[in-house]
Amino acid sequence: MIPGGIQKTSLIDYPGKLACVIFLSGCNLRCPYCHNPGLAEGRLRSMEFPDMSRIMDFLERRIGLLDGVVVSGGEPTIHPGLESLCRKIKAMGYALKLDTNGTRPRVIRRLLEKGLVDYVAMDLKTDLDRYGELGARDGVNSALGESIRLLLRSAVTYEFRTTCVKPFVDETVVKNLARTIRGARLYALQPFQETVVLRPEFFGEKSPAFDRRSLQALVRAAVPYVERCILRGADNAAPLEGPMRGSNPDRPVTTTRPL
Ligand code: SF4
After folding, report:
1. Domain count across the chain
2. Whose CA is nearest to atom 1 of ligand 1?
């Protein structure tokens, strides 16, 4: 398990908590828009924290100063030592949030069953049958479906989230994904930030980002199916609240809090 880096303090990565973020190097996907190619390819190694023991020392020193720890990537669930890492973090008294792409449901299930995570954020990148375009192995859609069901049934806090990147996301994709997670407590859409990407040649001259009006349309496409849908990380973003479970998802949507 190689630490790719650590963000020592964050107010936004673990909702409601002052947290640090541990980035584990390596990922089992190759999203062309990945903004940290070094992490995805497992090349990135933290200079200040070259091994996990340094990170553990850091966490020991921050007990009482931080509320939580976010274990992120890359993709944390590909690392055999993840369970042990989570156990050590929990033993220090921290709340633990896992960021995952959802491709390893058996790992997620074990962490949930053993009470080693308090919050799970699962990325939904595009229609589940299009993950081959992101470098996923065949059959990953059933794994993703299993992870989704695990979280929907789970007692821990969770969110699903989608980075809005063309051509992987459009209104139809968001609607399909929202139907797939129907009844979810939180679905967060986030704008793509123009930055370094893993495969710039994939996008050519065209920007993969959505403008503000289009992002609003994406939120509206999801709102009928989930308890709460928010646009995160956009200027002046305010959450749009979806109808409660059991209401008619095909009724027209009225929002009282414009974006
Ligand atoms: S965006 Fe996330 S899932 Fe995709 S390659 Fe990068 S680290 Fe992996």
Report:
1. 1
2. 34
pTM of the model: 0.89
Both tokens of 82, joined, read 């993840």
Range(s) of the domain holding residue 62: 3-256
Residue among 22, 24, 34, 104 to mutate when testing ligand 1 (max atoms within 8 A of CB): 34
Nearest CA to ligand 1 atom 4: 31
Compute the distance from residue 248 Cα to the ligand 1 centre, in Å: 35
Q: Tell me the pLDDT tens digit for each residue of 100-117.
A: 999 999 999 999 999 999
Query: Could you read off the pLDDT of 17-75 as tens digits, one per residue?
Result: 999 999 999 999 999 999 988 889 988 887 787 788 999 999 999 999 999 999 999 99
Query: What is the CB neighbour count within 10 angstroms for residue 7?
Result: 13
CATH number of 167's domain: 3.20.20.70
DSSP output for 41-76: TT----SS--SHHHHHHHHHHHBTTBSEEEEESS-G
Whether 29 lines ligand 1, by a CB cut-off of 6 Å, is: yes
